[in-house]
């Protein structure tokens, strides 16, 4: 498998949310608007790339029986780092996403990639895999967020195009399920 | 390089080393972000104060029964307004933190929602809804009759489909007003000096430092009276 394939598989073929159905909790929770979805995706990408790199570097030093706790410590550390960095330098985005940042620790995508890919592949391949998976996740979140924002509050990236109330249910949790379900159905139709 | 054996000593050592490295790294990041984070918080607070108070020169922060209050003075040391930072737990999604500014007559001059976890698109509208020009405008309101949403018999227009968030907001306003009365209630205006409740006497020491210049002498007499009553 070459690096390009490693990179692109995260977008459609093995998209973490749409095909593997991993990390649904932040997906449903943060996609109330396009910008929230995108920021959450990018924060996850950062953690994914960093943890993939570190784990592929130390994979041979970790005995098999304690690999999961070791991975979790690595991931949790990176999540705390990005939490602190966002608080310090991106306070605007932190205000809306702060609640969900600690949830990246328990996001199955991060641990899933660590276990399925980084613990078996080299540093470079793991880095590319993390980047591809993360960006694929960010893209899916952004599209879902955009759809919900357009239908729910009649705006896109915060820009209101019609001064009226949208279909409220799309901003609420049930709307996230509707949106995600249709999104997955469409992607599966074309993925065959 | 061969994989390490899962012997007890290997496992303990590995976990120990990983956690120590992680702890040191986190300590390092925390140390470097501590100052920017504090600055961001201060900047946010100052911006909030500018929004909810009339133009002021400097402010004095003070804790009244655990509630942070900020008194704003103009260049002549004249009190121009008081801001109270209140937290209410009546929100739909958790605590709601609001900064409410009162002018010298005790009317709401402005407010800003500092923190909330209300539903996006519904309760989250509270940042604009109750502002001047919003549908549930509360600016200029005198809270000596507590704020209530219309559903509860009050006169505040609740956010559509977010009555609970609106109730929480009213609760925050009332809490802020109670604190405001406790701190400066007795010098709300110079001609009608009413001690709004007995707690006021305890805080009168604060009041005399708060009400600068002309009002100062009046406060001192009140304080003496309060003392005599206690005897």
Describe the fold and architecture:
The complex is a heterodimer of chains A (192) and B (231). Chain A has 192 residues and is an all-alpha fold. Chain A has one domain. Chain A has a two-stranded antiparallel ribbon with strand order 1-2. Chain A starts with a helix and ends with a helix. The model of chain A has no long low-confidence stretch (mean pLDDT 86). In chain B, 42% of the residues lie in helices and 17% in strands. Chain B has a five-stranded antiparallel sheet with strand order 1-2-3-4-5, with helices on both faces. In chain B, α5 runs antiparallel to α6. At the A-B interface, α4 of A face α1 of B.
* Mean pLDDT, all residues of chain A: 86
Strand order of the largest sheet of chain A: 1-2
Helix content of chain A: 55-70%
Spell out the helices and strands of chain B N to C.
HEEEEEHHHHH
**Could you say which overall geometry of chain A the principal axes of the C-alpha atoms support?**
globular
Structure class of chain A: mainly alpha
User: Oligomeric form of this entry?
Assistant: heterodimer
Q: Would you count the extended β strands of chain A for me?
A: 2
Q: How is the biggest beta sheet of chain A arranged?
A: 2 strands, antiparallel
Broad structural category of chain B: alpha+beta
Overall strand count of chain B = 5
Low-confidence stretches of chain B: 186-231
Number of domains of chain A: 1
Q: Identify the strand order in the major beta sheet of chain B.
A: 1-2-3-4-5
Low-pLDDT sequence parts of chain A: none
Biggest sheet overview of chain B: 5 strands, antiparallel
* Average pLDDT of chain B: 75
Radius of gyration of chain B: 24 Å
Count every helix of chain B, treating DSSP H or I runs of 4 or more residues as helices.
Answer: 6
Number of helices of chain A: 8
The rounded distance between the terminal residues' Cα atoms of chain B is: 86 Å
């Amino acid at each position: 498998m070459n690096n390009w394939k490693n990179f692109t598989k995260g977008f459609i073929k093995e998209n973490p949310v749409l095909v593997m159905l991993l990390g649904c909790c932040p997906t449903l929770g943060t996609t109330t608007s396009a910008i929230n979805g995108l920021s959450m995706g990018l924060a996850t990408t950062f953690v994914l790339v960093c943890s993939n790199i570190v784990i592929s570097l130390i994979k041979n030093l970790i005995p098999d029986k304690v690999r999961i706790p070791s991975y979790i410590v690595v991931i949790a550390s990176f999540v705390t780092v990005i939490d602190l960095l966002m608080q310090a330098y991106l306070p605007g985005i932190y205000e809306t996403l702060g609640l969900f940042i600690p949830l990246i620790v328990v996001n199955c995508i991060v641990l899933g990639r660590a276990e399925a890919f980084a613990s078996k592949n080299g540093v470079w391949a793991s880095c590319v895999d993390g980047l591809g998976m993360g960006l694929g996740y960010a893209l899916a979140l952004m599209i879902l967020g955009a759809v919900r924002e357009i239908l729910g509050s009649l705006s896109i990236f915060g820009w209101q195009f019609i001064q009226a109330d949208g279909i409220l249910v799309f901003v609420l949790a049930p709307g996230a399920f509707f949106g995600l379900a249709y999104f997955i159905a469409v992607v599966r139709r074309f993925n065959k | 390089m061969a994989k390490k054996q899962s012997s007890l000593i290997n496992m303990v050592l590995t976990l120990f080393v990983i956690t120590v490295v992680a702890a040191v790294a986190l300590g390092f990041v925390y140390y470097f972000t501590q100052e920017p984070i504090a600055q961001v918080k201060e900047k946010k607070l100052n911006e909030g104060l500018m929004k909810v108070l009339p133009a002021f020169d400097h402010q004095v922060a003070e804790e009244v029964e655990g509630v942070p209050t900020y008194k704003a003075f103009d260049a002549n040391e004249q009190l121009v307004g008081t801001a109270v930072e209140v937290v209410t737990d009546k929100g739909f999604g958790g605590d709601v933190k609001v900064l409410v500014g009162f002018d010298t007559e005790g009317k709401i001059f402005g407010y800003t929602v500092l923190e909330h976890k209300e539903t996006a698109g519904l309760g989250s509208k509270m940042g604009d809804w109750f502002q001047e020009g919003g549908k549930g405008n509360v600016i200029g309101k005198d809270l000596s009759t507590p704020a209530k949403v219309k559903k509860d018999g009050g006169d505040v227009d609740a956010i559509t489909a977010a009555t609970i968030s609106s109730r929480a907001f009213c609760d925050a306003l009332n809490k802020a007003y109670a604190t405001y009365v406790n701190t400066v209630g007795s010098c709300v205006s110079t001609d009608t000096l009413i001690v709004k409740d007995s707690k006021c006497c305890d805080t009168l020491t604060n009041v005399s430092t708060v009400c600068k210049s002309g009002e100062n002498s009046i406060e001192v007499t009140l304080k003496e009276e309060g003392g005599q009553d206690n005897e």
